[in-house]
UniProtKB/TrEMBL annotation:
GO terms for cellular component: cytoplasm; plasma membrane. Its main location: membrane. GTP binds at residues 139-146, 221-225, 285-288. The keyword ATP-binding does not apply. Residues 306-319 form the SRP54-type proteins GTP-binding domain. It comes from the Bacteria. It is an enzyme of class 3 (hydrolase). One of its GO terms (biological process) is SRP-dependent cotranslational protein targeting to membrane. Belongs to the GTP-binding SRP family. FtsY subfamily. Part of the signal recognition particle protein translocation system, which is composed of SRP and FtsY. The keyword GTP-binding applies. It comes from Facklamia languida CCUG 37842. The gene is ftsY. This is Signal recognition particle receptor FtsY.
């Protein structure tokens, strides 16, 4: 039984949501990562939602105003808040419910429904059928780009793939060394190139090595920062050209790394980067460090870019493939159990 089914059984009183019972052991580990990584967000979200229902009088305009305020302060975003509040209001009226418990249930059901209709799991990485799959990582300094390259390298390696990393962020002091440390720790080779000042030569060497030695994945840490849209476009276009010369299928993924602790700013960054180059997916880091984890909802609602991975801590294994079921379950679990 999937987690959405479990949530629904909890709604109908058929089942209390018990997390470990008859979960596949692998899934139990992933769920545990999600639950721990999302603790701050869950606590603050549950508190805000519970507050809505204490001192309850009747369901009126004030209730919906308070609901909107609670959602916005959880960084769910304006557009998502409006869509959700409308959906909840419509369902409450249609079903004629007045009691707090019933309204709460409608609210949780609508949150799950908005997610479920988008599809549950994010699309998997786009693979190169013929040669190494090349993934470029872009993002502003400090968002967790280099760390994410290391973590994704680890998860691909764990899945049995042969992984190569390229230290193409020659702009940020220390980024090359930092990736080298990840490489040594994980036993994944890192191409640093002959000339550390020129990312193009690093990428050239890396793609040649990946082809010649039969690597499955080439992960490229770039200095793809947004100092100006024109510069970013030029930088990435140059990298793509170099890669295409050696690897006819070119680049499969351009992943934008965003820091979840910056809340709605992450959304603004995603929009700006997406105007400069085609972003194929997002990596949302540091969810463990923020109560603003609702930003995942607004990013999914407002952008047509899938969140492919989320960062739930600093360990190599704390990066997880984004999955809507796990996310929603971890977000609303406390509310289900009350
Ligand atoms: P870059 O400049 O984008 O390459 O950023 P770094 O990879 O150097 O990461 C900046 C800081 O964020 C480092 O201290 C990382 O350990 C930390 N970091 C990255 N991802 C996560 C995460 O998912 N959770 C937490 N708590 N810290 C993270």
């Amino acid at each position: 039984m999937g987690l959405f089914d479990r949530i629904k059984r909890a709604f109908t009183g058929e089942d209390k949501v018990v997390k470990d019972q008859d979960l596949d052991p692998k899934e139990a580990i992933v769920l545990d990562k999600y639950e721990r990584g999302m603790e701050k967000t869950r606590k603050s979200f549950s508190e805000r939602m519970s507050d809505l229902f204490t001192g309850w009088r009747e369901i009126d305009e004030d209730f919906y105003d308070d609901l909107e305020e609670a959602l916005i302060s959880a960084d769910v975003g304006f557009a998502m808040t409006m869509a959700l509040t409308d959906a909840i209001q419509e369902a409450v009226e249609e079903r004629n419910v007045y009691q707090p418990e019933a309204v709460k249930q409608v609210m949780l059901e609508e949150m799950v429904a908005i997610y479920e209709k988008d599809g549950q799991a994010s699309p998997a990485l786009i693979e190169n059928p013929d040669g190494p799959t090349v993934i470029l990582f872009v993002g502003v300094n400090g968002v967790g780009k280099t760390t994410s390259v290391g973590k994704i390298g680890y998860s691909l390696q764990q899945a049995g793939h042969k992984v190569l990393m390229a230290a193409g962020d020659t702009f940020r002091a220390g980024a090359v060394e930092q990736l080298n440390v990840w490489g040594q720790r994980l036993d994944i080779p890192v191409v640093t190139g002959r000339d550390q000042g020129d990312p193009a030569s690093v990428v050239y060497d890396a793609v040649k090595k990946a082809n010649a030695e039969g690597y499955d994945y080439l992960l490229v840490d770039t200095a793809g920062r947004l100092h100006s849209k024109a510069n970013l476009m030029a930088e990435l276009a140059k990298m793509k050209r170099i890669i295409e010369r050696e690897n006819p299928n070119g680049v499969q993924e351009v992943l934008l790394v965003l820091d979840a602790t910056t809340g709605q700013n992450a959304l603004i960054q995603a929009k700006q980067f997406n105007e400069a180059t085609e972003i194929t997916g997002l990596v949302l880091t540091k969810l463990d460090g923020t109560a603003k984890g609702g930003v995942v909802l607004s990013i999914r609602h407002e952008l047509d870019i899938p969140v492919k991975y989320i960062g739930l801590g600093e360990q190599a294994s704390d990066l997880q493939v984004f999955d809507a079921e796990h996310y929603m379950y971890s977000l609303i679990r406390d509310l289900l159990e009350k």
